[in-house]
Amino acid sequence: MAYPKSSREKSCNPISNSTVNSVTFGVHGNKLQCLSKANLKYPVLFAKLQESDAFESKRCKSYEDMLDADTEKSRGNFDIKKLSERSSESHFNDEVSGALSMSSEKLLEYPLNYEACIGKLRAVYLHVLAAEQWNASRLNKCHRSYLESATNLIHYLALNSLDVDELKQDLYSSGLVDLERTNSHVLASITAAIKLLENLQPNSSDKNHKTWPLDVIHHDNVQESDNYVDFGISAMRKKASMNKAALFGPAQDEKNINIMVTVGREAIENETLLSDLVKAGANVIRINCAHDDPTIWSEIIRLAKHCSQMLEKPCRVLMDLAGPKLRTGPMNSGPQVMKLSPKKDAKGDVMFPAQVWLSRPGCAPPTPSAVDATLFVESGRFFNEIGIGNVLEFVDCRGRRRSLKISKRLSASSGYGFIAECSQTAYVGSGTKLCIQKKKGKSSHGEVVNVPAADQFIRMRVGDLLTIIREPSLIFDEIGASTCGAAKITCNSGRLFDSVKPGDPIAFDDGRIWGVVQGTSINEIVVLITRASPKGSKLGSEKSINIPRSEIHFEGLTSKDLVDLDFIAANADMVGISFIRDVHDMEIVQQQLKKRKLAELGIVLKIETQSAFDRLPLLLLQTMQSPNPFGVMIARGDLAVECGWDQMGSIQEEILSMCNAAHVPVIWATQVLESLTKTGIPTRAEITDVASGMR
């Protein structure tokens, strides 16, 4: 068994020359045989990240600053005694040293070298226990409800700090145990493997081979007053289930899967949307506080709770704090015009007329996906005089005469409406008059109202220049090309202008557009676009801005976050902590929750930066100091931009494994079934993505 190079450099003695000492672990109170260096300097704990060969220099990610122990303090907790001269201990010492130094060529001479595997497993077992002891001060700070989970996380990190790939392969290929699937119960799995191998040894009845102390093997079964912790496999799995139920509620079916759906203003514009989502299986509604306002949020939550009660299906509410995320600023509202477009073939002939829903204001169509557009019409007797087959004539925004033919009358949740067909492209805006020609030259009119403003955007292509301006008022009326030919957009965060420098890469809209900073000033940043869609990529307001190589510093919670937190405390079940970066950010969140006495509010740590990923073990241990139920969200949009899309697969697996070890539920987010939401048909990759997420 070999330690990572950086760990070996901290000790001049190779591991095969380690001595075996009798050590007393204070937490568990029983004597354990522990491999230690002759000078009692234990190797620092490392967690090995599986990365590509191109990143060989970064293969071992050090958690020295996170999970290291005070060596001098640790010495004081260890009762080191002299080795006795008993032959059994001497035999065990030689056995372990020989097993650890045995070459792979010698192992291949046998189907499975039981003594070698047992020796290695014993050494791993002792290393795991030592890591627990080294980090006793951190574990003591954890809330009692998370003690088992925090301890197992330490065990997981200790196991992954060792180069035991060969041992894992030997055990797996022999059909004994798969150490890759034991993250949630590390200690119990190692113990079970040792017992199993000892029972399978050809000479297992020989008393000379019973040198492994029983109190070590039964470490997880020893009860020591109030410090007893059950690390059994069943207990660990039960703990993981309890943590998940505390955050999301009890499981409703055998699949035990939660479906989270993000909604916004559209949820109150379409009265049946939330009801349909809950019926389809959604049991968590997510609201992003970066968009809309408390009035909209309150109505969404009211509708969600109403649907949950009426359908007798549980539905919780998660509200994400906006956090210190950089976004593009507002743009002028576009024209209040809606385009009606029939489906045409390659020759331009109409194949299917555009389906238009006509109703009074506030009456949404019963099946929104079945119509291409919704028009609200204000008129006293207009709808009383409409019938199937009637033709409504109007002049569109371009001055062209167009018509709508009524094809169906449908009932809706708050009234009724009509389906009309439009066979020519038309642009309808607020104020457009619809006219029904009746007998004897009479007519009836209705006026189109509440047409939403079109989203404004600028289209960026490779080679274009983009100017980011600090003060929105400078260009609020002149979005588009400037005198120097560069498009303009705003960002009101001064940190962006203070942190970037020429040559820094910069990304927009979750990495859909990339550029390089060409120049900076107090109020402007000029960016050269280096990556965009061949036809040009749209960049609008409220889109993300990422500067992955910058040393930009963010505050933990913004002033807006603190105001929104009061609303969340009164209305939601969970709060999402956006753009968390280090333990200090989490400490600020915990202080604010404690100040408001929110011990039962669920917490979701959104991992969306390289800094948060690098410090994930520390963030988990820090969060475990509070009694709040919590989980982790893999926010793959910003995380892929910050860390690189080519690293996303390994990073995602690392987060899943670590959270599994900490018994923390994970939310799989960003672009989940995106094609399904846009086109109605998921891609094959999205189907398998969801299947993986169901783990």
From TrEMBL:
UniProt KW keywords: ATP-binding, Glycolysis, Kinase, Magnesium, Metal-binding, Nucleotide-binding, Pyruvate, Transferase
Cofactor: K(+)
Residue span(s) of domain Pyruvate kinase barrel: 255-341, 477-692
The EC number(s) this enzyme carries: 2.7.1.40
Pathway given in the UniProt record: Carbohydrate degradation; glycolysis; pyruvate from D-glyceraldehyde 3-phosphate: step 5/5
InterPro entries: Pyr_Knase (IPR001697), Pyrv/PenolPyrv_kinase-like_dom (IPR015813), Pyrv_kinase-like_dom_sf (IPR040442), Pyrv_Knase-like_insert_dom_sf (IPR011037), Pyrv_Knase_brl (IPR015793), Pyrv_Knase_insert_dom_sf (IPR015806)
GO molecular function: ATP binding; kinase activity; magnesium ion binding; potassium ion binding; pyruvate kinase activity
UniProt KW Transit peptide keyword: no
Similarity section: Belongs to the pyruvate kinase family.
Protein name, as recorded: pyruvate kinase
Source species of the chain: Ensete ventricosum
High-level lineage: Eukaryota, Viridiplantae, Streptophyta, Embryophyta, Tracheophyta
